[in-house]
Amino acid sequence: MTATAEARGHPIVELRSVRRAFGATLAVRDVDLSVGPREFLVILGESGSGKTTLLKTINRLQPQDSGDVLIEGRTTSAVVEYELRRRIGYVFQRVGLFPHLTVAENIAVTPRLLGWSEESVQARVDELLALVNLPAEMGPRLPAALSGGQRQRVGVARALAARPKIMLMDEPFASLDPVTRDTLGSEYRLLHERMGLVTVMVTHDVLEALLLADRIVVMRDGVIVASGTPHEMMNERSDAEVRKLMDMPRRQLARVAAMLDNARRP
Amino acid sequence: MNDRLANAWALLPGYLSQHVLLSAAAMALGLVVSLALVVAAVRSARVRWPVLAFASLIQTVPSLALLALFYPLLLALSGLADGVFGVGFSALGFLPSLLALALYSMLPVIRNGVAGILNIDPAVIEAARGVGMTDWQRLWRVELPLAAPLLMAGIRTAAVWVIGTATLSTPVGQVSLGNYIFSGLQLQDWVSVLFGCIAAAVLALVVDQLLGVIETGLARRSRRRVAAGVAALAVGIAVAALPLGRGAAASYVVGGKNFSEQFILADLMTARITEAGGTAVQRTGLGSAVVFGALASGDIDVYVDYSGTLWANVMRRTDVPRREPMLADLRTWLEEERGIVMLGSLGFENAYGLAMRRDRAEQLGIATIADLAAHASELSMGGDLEFFSRPEWAALQSAYGLAFASRREFEPTFMYRAVEGGDVDVISAFTSDGRIAANDLLVLADPAGAILPYDAIVLIAPKRANDDVLRRALAPLVDAIPLALMQEANYRVDRERDKETPAATARWLENEIAARGK
Questions:
Q1: Cut 0.80: pTM above it
Q2: Structural domain count, chain A
Q3: Range of the structural domain that residue B228 is part of
Q4: Which residue in chain A has the smallest CA separation from B132?
């Protein structure tokens, strides 16, 4: 257990020796991981590193073959899958809005599954549209009429609808253009803070990880090879693995900084 | 012409309503089963292949055979139920048609349903699981709504098939628009055939359009369109169900096979029963194999069969006795084995005979089957659909050594046309057929006595064995119809010009019988 997680109190999400295999390939090899209250954890890794599989063991979209997943100290294997998932927000790259339902109906899905009154569902939908910066008149539209960025805003709103404590995000902004990606990323980070969420996000984008995370874990070949705050990752780590990973943004930032310097000179 | 058209219109409400109800019930049953199989098939790849293969396999079974196969199956089940629970059910008519048509409706629904669900974007399915839907919630809220347009297209195809195929349910005793077609084909009443075809086609088109309204409604997510289509279909089915409430249940069911003579005799018996104070409905156009079983199980009360048919097909006898001992044997066998009452012979035989155009026979010097054998190798032979597999054919071949240059099978109507047009030289004629005299055909003599006697006999179901009304009504018909009279009656409905309906002919026949003072 890392220093940060301990500092934040009892872990909300805890993985103990979680293993998941697809046939002969081990996607996740006996991983231990804990995420504390209000923590924003980013799992960073290349495609095939097992990061998405690891994320999905948390809401059992991928059941682990061995090991244990605990939410607030209780093992998830004792909970009915769909009830577990209704308590955990899930956002992923391809969004998966229900094409036959309006924006408002998409957002209202989980509250309705939980049997909320129609009144509180409506109120929650309005609240969420505002929260993700969508105009209220988007409510009655079908997803096909939205832009990519708007769709993922709805995706985030849908995940937040039933007031989950935990948000799982699988490369949520990867297919958006850079400007939208940045906007949505920083807006979500604010929501995370305001609502006191626990967020586990998977990305292969180093800069995104650095800008959003409280803590970053690096995965390769199904194991966590490094863990630390963005600051530690950039400045204090001497291992080759991390250094190699951070080199690219560091070089890019240096070049951008140089350009800014040049521009300031008369 | 106008007479026959008026006759066809008068029959339409009854036929159409039965056709609609049968098709709707078969579609409903087929849909329920198909949807269950769709769900099983999309949930498990191991189930998918057998389900799709099964649905395709059914489609390769000829529809008429599928309908016919259900009859003996249900008869056996009914017997079983009667034995176990003391309650049987009617294996005739509605039930076999319903089951066969329901099976027939399944392929397009299953295929489109499975494709519709499997083609849904995997991201949507992942989202459905991710938000915490159960498998059933995912099915009802996501998979079925998204597969609905494709599924509806499959349902449309199925509905058109079912409405078309339902016309084939007539031979298993279910009234449908096929009654126009089957009786029309037999009676060479092309008005009736065409009327049946057009009625079935119009019905199929209307239903297809209404389902199309629902389909576009689903695709455009317009509740109003869906509701309008569903309402129109529901009203149609409700209107079709209206005639069912009317008319008290008839006390007697008169059966009949699928040719002119049987239609006339069924009408004649119905009229006699009505005059004797009973009420009767008809189940005509039944297949030869179906009708005897229907009588034995009590689904019909009375019909006319032929001694040779029962001798060979039901008793499975291969010997060829003389007429009188055969009738005696048959009477005893029917009574003892099946409890069926043989009321008596009507007085004529409708036997198989080999017939040629008289001019052709004279030209070749043929008067008997023995003469024919000498020329057979240069001649072609036409038979009805069952003739060449009947024992008569084997008996003829062995008695006379007949070996024709070629042989072909026809529907009886087309068989007579074929001999008239010279397409074949010899045909398997029925001796009471009016077309023999009318087309100037010569029935060749059978000096060796190879062909079984085929006396027309009135049979009464076991449960009606001691029924006074039936006996009073039908006893006067015994020995009352000589061959020439039946031939003339048959010719009245079979001829091309001044064609009469079987009902009108039955009235004429009844008057003739009365006039002859039986």
A1: no
A2: 2
A3: 2-245
A4: A82
DSSP per residue over A185-217, as a string?
HHHHHHHHHHHT-EEEEEES-HHHHHHH-SEEE
Determine whether B255 is exposed, middle or buried from the number of CB atoms within 10 Å of its CB (0-12, 13-18, 19+).
buried
Residue B130 to residue A113, Cβ atoms within 8 A: no
Q: Could you say which of B123, B125, B137 has the minimum Cβ distance to residue A95?
A: B123
Are B10 and B105 within one domain? Answer: yes
Cβ–Cβ below 8 Å for B145 and A110? no
- Enter the ipTM: 0.91
Please report how many Cα atoms fall inside a 13 Å half-sphere around the Cα of residue B80, on the Cβ side: 6
Q: Answer yes or no: is A144 within a domain.
A: yes
CB contact under 8 A, B124 and A99: yes
Choose the final residue of a domain: B419, B443, B467: B443
Does one domain contain both A2 and A130? Answer: no
Q: Which domain holds residue A52?
A: 1-87+166-229
User: Are A171 and A68 in the same domain?
Assistant: yes
Please judge whether A95 and B131 are an interchain contact, meaning their C-beta atoms are less than 8 angstroms apart.
Answer: no
Judged by CB atoms closer than 8 Å, whether chains meet at B132 and A82 is answered as yes
Q: Are B348 and B432 in contact (CB under 8 A)?
A: yes
Per-residue pLDDT of chain B (518 residues; tens, 9 = 90+): 567 787 788 788 888 888 999 999 999 999 999 999 999 999 888 888 898 898 888 888 887 777 777 777 777 777 777 777 766 666 677 888 888 899 889 999 999 999 999 999 999 999 999 999 999 999 999 999 999 989 999 999 999 999 999 998 887 778 889 988 888 877 777 888 999 999 999 999 999 999 999 988 888 878 899 999 999 999 998 888 876 655 456 688 899 988 888 999 999 999 999 888 888 888 887 877 778 888 888 888 999 999 988 888 888 887 888 888 999 999 999 999 888 999 999 999 888 889 999 998 999 899 999 898 888 888 999 988 878 887 778 888 888 888 888 888 888 778 888 888 888 999 998 888 888 888 889 989 888 888 888 999 999 998 888 888 888 888 888 998 998 899 899 888 887 778 888 888 999 999 988 888 64
Q: Using CB atoms, which residue from A82, A96, A113 is nearest to B127?
A: A96
Among B245, B277, B308, residue at a domain's last position: B245
Look up the CATH number of the domain holding residue B373. Answer: 3.40.190.120
For residue A102, the distance in angstroms to the closest alpha carbon of chain B comes to 11
Residues of A in contact with B223 (CB under 8 A): none
Assess if residue A64 is contained within a domain.
yes
Cα nearest neighbour of B126 on chain A: A96
- A65 & A6 share domain: yes
Beta bridge partners of A28: A20
Buried b (16+ CB within 10 A) or exposed e, A190-218: ebbeeeebbbbbbbebbebbbebbbbbbb
